[in-house]
Amino acid sequence: MARGAEKSEFSFPACWEDSKVMQIRFATFRPRHLSIEDYDTKMKFWKDLVTQYLKFWGRVTFSLRDLQLNFMRGDQLPACLDTVISEMHQQKQIRPRAEYDNDPANTWTGWLMNSLVKRPLSWSWLKIKHSVVSEDVEASTLVEWIHLGVLNDICELMIKKLLPENRGKRFHFDAFKSLCDVHHIRIHTEKDIFACLISLHVRQLVGLEFKTEKQTRSIHLIKIPFKETDDLVINETDHAVHNLQITQADLLKQLENLEDEIKANDEKARQYIKENKRQMAKTYLRKRHLVEKNHERRSIALHNIESLLSSVDEAQNSGVVLDAYKIGSSTLQKVLSDSGLKYDSVDEVLADVRETLEQHREVQDVLSNSTVDPTASQEDDQLENELRELCGETATVPQKSNAAASNNNERFEVVISDQEMIEMLANLEVEDGSVSVSSTRTLKQVQKS
Questions:
Q1: pTM, rounded to two decimals
Q2: pLDDT surpasses 80 at 93
């Protein structure tokens, strides 16, 4: 992309159009002790601008020459960026790319090795070299750097958008690059993708397989694990699955091409029929039949490959379910052990519960079968009689009757004569028509007798 097009898309600060202000910003830094506030303001301006620019274009790697060209105003190059890069390096916001490749984890051991072994040797050589010849300014401007903040932001985008949707898959480097474009993750060059993948590999999020061609080391295969505990080493099984996926993609393309060829033969046959060239039309129909048979064979092969891939995915899912069973079983055993829920202890507790319930029922039965003291009932009757006498009531309930009433088991026999029964029947009121004539005659005969 042209530098002018990049500038038109990236939003520079408002002061960028102020030539007077930018002339000061483009000039080299004066010693900080002369004006601490001006120095810090200018340094913050350039550090923020460099970070925003690299983040906007997805540039993880950069050089001093890249920044000078991209921040050029007319014919004027910023003369202060070397100081800005030095300051960012001291604050560990950026790292040389060569140093990052040797220690992508940014560990203390890597820093120590670079500080005590590699850097002193290089510094000694530079001192000897500079004492003999002048400093190679052009070479220093081409040194590549890694911006750690931009690197981390792009890696987080990959972790959020790309990795969850492609678990258990393998990709070539070019396929992974296309995947970033599909998920709208802006990355400037392949070197930036390389740095991001190295960072993800160090975090144990992806597995990488490298290849060396023409003394250049590059990433050949990328493995996204199905789950976090999967082995990240790319083995023969991974290669086999990856080859199946590649074959599947190739067959899909072949089927698309064959379908296009079938349509083209149909069009040719129709055209020759319109021109009354039936032999030529038959030729293209025969060709169409051959292409259809080829299409059928490719379809069967694609179906078989898809079945194999489906079986592999099913096996992986079954492994996940089995692991879940194991975790659940061990967790349940631990909970039972910690809470003391064993067969013997539970059986003893339930036996105690049953014994306690039986004792409670026995107590309830004893309380329900207990009799009331008869002297208390007689005393209550005497008190009732005294209350009636005080109220002027002379009638009292006979003791015999009370005794008979209190005894529900005794039965009284009532004797009624025939004459009393006839009189009671005569006094009954009966609705008209509810008694038959024969019943009335019978009643009169009984009365006469």
A1: 0.56
A2: yes
